[in-house]
Amino acid sequence: MTAVTASRGAWDSRDFRRLWTGSAASTFGSEVAELAVPLLAIGVLAATPGELGALRTAQFLPFLLATLPLGLLVDRRRRLPLMIGADVGRFALILVIPIAVWAGFAQIELLYGVMFLAGVLTVLYQVADFAFVPEIVTPHQLVDANGKLAAAQSANEIGARGFGGLLVQAASGPVAMLVNALTYLVSALSLRGIAVVETARPPASSRPSWAEVTAGLREALRNRFIRSLLGEATTFNLFNEVFILGLMLFTVREVGLSPVQLGIVFTAGGVGSFLGAWFGSRVTGRFGYGRVLLITLVLGNTAPALVALTGTDVVGVLVLFCAVFVVMGVGIGIANVHAVTLRQAALPESLRGRVNAAYRLISWGAIPVGASLGGVLAGVTDGRTAMVAGAFGMALATLWVAFSPVRRLASIDEAARLSRTG
Q1: What is the pTM of this model?
Q2: Residue 355 scores a pLDDT above 70
Q3: Which CATH number fits domain 10-199+212-421: 1.10.287.3510, 1.20.1250.20, 3.40.50.10860, 3.60.20.30?
């Protein structure tokens, strides 16, 4: 294992810089696709609200089906080759979408299949990435490393979503998906340059037992800090999917926002997330870890409720939504960095992959449920109703942390110590 000394920042590590570059490249493409996929489904394939919900369900269903076995795989194998393989696989899969559109055989069912398979590889990459970061930085550098990774993702939200909207409007949805595919290839090439010698995995039996597969789930539910964060994340993801699906339908079909204007709204959220992720660690020492996490969750999770005030005037919608997304981004940007760091610090290395897999099984598994719920709700009512319902549901997520021991934590070190002692 190679790591920089505790007195230096994570950025001084050549391996971390390569990991950061790969992460930045792939998240740039993913953020482009975040707008391009639903806009392609709506504009090119004339998807109904139900089909749009089914598409999002297919994209995130792997978090329900594949996380536990992939978590065990990550704990039993070297993580870096798994991440590179996931990138190469996603490159090949996403490339199918523009080819299908240009060749004239694209259908919504094809999109379901491609996004499902790409989702499986996304699960693998993210579970491995979470467990791999502590291999190349010291424990004292985790907040700094996670902050820089989160800032890169937030910066991509600033530029990539706006760029995605511009690509869809100026070129086409298939061109935007081609860009998405190429970024996974760039990520794989960057990761190949990492020279870290990973910690040897313990010997494993030829066939994993059920106890091995579910160990991460048991630990996630047993650890009082992880359990509270898991409840918050699951509730947020469930209602956020209803919120976003309703927002897409409301702004495109009821208000008439262009892809570029919709990109501006998401870019505003990226600005807030970038500011929160980049500067969030500076306020922790001053106000305490748990207090900062709780306050920023209140800020980020409650701000979306302001969309209930919106009308249908294009300028008014743009102004209100941009303001909401900036505030939401700042709160969630700070909270996410602290939540990820707490999850890494409070877990033994031997269980990180499986606990993260269990965490994503439950929290990200709520996304396809929310997508299906949002599609049904928007179909029965309209996009605005689904959007407002989702926004108020997101506000409830903060209660998990507000009534937990997390809010009393003074530092990450305290969380690690208390987790070891039970």
Answers
A1: 0.70
A2: yes
A3: 1.20.1250.20
Quote the tokens at residue 192.
């190949």
Q: Is the distance from CB of 250 to CB of 382 less than 8 angstroms? A: yes
Check if the beta carbon of residue 147 is closer than 8 Å to that of residue 278: yes
Here the tokens at position 251 are: 């702004």
Q: How far is CA 265 from CA 132, 244, 259, 325, 328, in A?
A: 33, 12, 10, 7, 12
Question: What is the C-alpha separation between 52 and 32, in angstroms, rounded?
Answer: 17
The angle at the Cα of 55, spanning 357 to 336, to the nearest 5 degrees, equals 40
The b-or-e profile of 55-73 (16+ CB within 10 A means b, else e) is bbbbbbbbbbbbbbebbbb
Q: Which residue has the tokens 């890494």?
A: 344
Place of tokens 């309209």: 382
User: Phi and psi dihedrals of 117, rounded to 5?
Assistant: -65, -40
* Distance from chain centroid for Cα 45: 26
pLDDT digits (tens, 9 = 90+) for 9-49: 778 778 888 999 998 898 888 878 877 888 888 888 888 88
Render the burial of 333-357: b for 16+ CB within 10 Å, e for the rest. bbbbbbbbbbbbbbbeeebbbbbbb
Instruction: Enter the DSSP assignment of 171.
Output: T
pLDDT top residue among 198 and 304 = 304
Buried b / exposed e along 388-399 (16+ C-beta atoms within 10 A): bbbbebbbebbe
**Cα–Cα distance for residue pair 33/59, rounded to 1 Å:** 12
Q: In 10 A of CB 5, how many CB atoms? A: 10
Radius of gyration of the chain (CA): 20
Could you tell me the end-to-end alpha-carbon distance of the chain, in angstroms, rounded to an integer?
Answer: 28
Residue pair 15/210 in contact (Cβ under 8 Å)? The answer is no
Check residue 308 and report its DSSP letter.
G
Which class for 420: exposed (0-12), middle (13-18), buried (19 or more C-beta within 10 A)?
exposed
